[in-house]
Design brief:
By secondary structure, this protein is an alpha/beta fold. It is built from five helices and five strands; from the N terminus they run E-H-E-H-E-H-E-H-E-H. A five-stranded parallel beta sheet has the order 2-1-3-4-5. Helix 2 packs parallel to helix 3. Bound molecules: manganese (II) ion (MN).
Length: 128
């Protein structure tokens, strides 16, 4: 069983991802605010983090920076899910350490390919 943390303030997006992952052996944790997302990441050390960028209180970029600078969360793969498809922003997030950047509305097949690839790699690494 893998753990996935989705940091997202929009409930319908959370429910969509929950539905999309229903057949996967994944425990889904959700945080609707950036600071809470950082807390949950440090506490539960998820196998993958999905990150929205427009969050109340703390922007997704700040959340990513906080994850990367903390040794407890520095290597957790982060996939950004954002409606913002500005090339400069995508480039900036990837340079800042995001593994992938998927634009909303989510293309389900592509999303699952990315998630399955990361989970397979992470679980292989964990099990040796
Ligand atoms: Mn948002």
């Amino acid at each position: 069983m893998a753990t996935l943390l989705y940091i997202e303030d929009n409930l319908s997006n959370l429910k969509l991802i929950e539905r999309v992952l229903i057949d996967r052996p994944v425990r889904l944790l959700a945080a609707m605010q950036g600071g809470l997302g950082l807390d949950l990441a440090r506490e539960h050390h998820p196998d993958i983090i999905l990150l929205d960028l427009h969050l109340p209180g703390m922007l997704g970029e700040q959340v990513l920076a906080g994850l990367r600078e903390d040794p407890r969360t520095a290597t957790i793969p982060v996939v950004v899910l954002s409606a913002d498809a500005t090339p400069g922003r995508i480039e900036r997030l990837l340079v800042a350490g995001a593994e992938a950047y998927l634009t909303k509305p989510i293309e389900v097949d592509r999303f699952l390919r990315v998630i399955d690839g990361i989970l397979e790699r992470e679980l292989d690494a964990r099990d040796g």
